[in-house]
Design brief:
- This protein is mostly helical and 209 residues long.
- 68% of the residues lie in helices and 4% in strands.
- The strands form two sheets. The protein has a two-stranded antiparallel sheet. It has a two-stranded antiparallel sheet with strand order 3-4.
- The longest helix is centred in the last third of the chain and has 21 residues.
- The C terminus is likely disordered.
């Protein structure tokens, strides 16, 4: 796969749709080999490839840096958790898994309420959905949860007065991520993993027809 032809929008869509439950790459692989990219095109391709392949490692790295910043503002932990959920809801896989687990838990206590939390059926015309399948969480459109959690997180950020300090921690985490992704030489395993993800996506689209 030529990552140089992948746009930023395509990369964001791939990160939004991919399953984030995969374990992080081993540290021996994460800190294996570093080289300076020979051109801007090489750097651009390497950056996108590493961001996709080491996504879980980068997520853990940024969270670890943020935790160090939270030690100074304990109330900011609540705000960060709400922010993390509002961001995670944008991922289709996480939103579906979260909705399924919550509905399953509610069904144990109130089957009638759990029935109302089911997503509405998508109209089907000639064997195909009439529109792109919308994501629902507990029977509500996804944007309702994103907006609610975002508003709550903003309130706690304001109360904790730790937004500036956490912003610095976030900048440091993002800077470390970009530096690693820029100088970590993609290995053959990363390229093979990319092709496997492409095959799964093509097969998933084929099975939905």
């Amino acid at each position: 796969m030529d990552w140089g032809n992948v746009t930023t929008e395509d990369l964001v869509d791939a990160l939004r749709e991919v399953d984030w439950s995969s374990p992080p790459r081993p540290l021996s692989e994460f800190f294996s080999r570093f080289t300076v990219p020979r051109s801007y095109a090489k750097w651009n391709s390497r950056l996108k490839c590493n961001l996709y392949y080491y996504r879980t490692n980068y997520f853990i790295l940024i969270v670890s840096v943020l935790i160090l910043g939270f030690l100074w503002r304990p109330l900011a932990v609540v705000a960060a958790i709400l922010t993390a959920f509002s961001t995670a809801f944008l991922n289709d896989s996480f939103a579906g898994t979260f909705s399924e687990k919550v509905t399953r838990t509610v069904r144990k206590f109130s089957p009638h309420l759990a029935a109302k939390m089911r997503p509405p059926l998508t109209p089907v015309i000639r064997g195909r959905p009439s529109a792109r399948r919308a994501i629902y969480i507990c029977g509500q459109p996804r944007w309702v949860f994103v907006l609610t959690f975002s508003a709550a997180s903003f309130f706690f950020w304001f109360v904790s007065c730790g937004l500036l300090m956490v912003s610095w921690a976030l900048v440091i985490g993002l800077l470390a991520t970009i530096l690693h992704a820029s100088f970590r030489t993609p290995n053959l395993k990363a390229r093979l993993n990319t092709f496997r993800e492409e095959f799964r996506q093509v097969w998933r689209n084929y099975s939905e027809l």
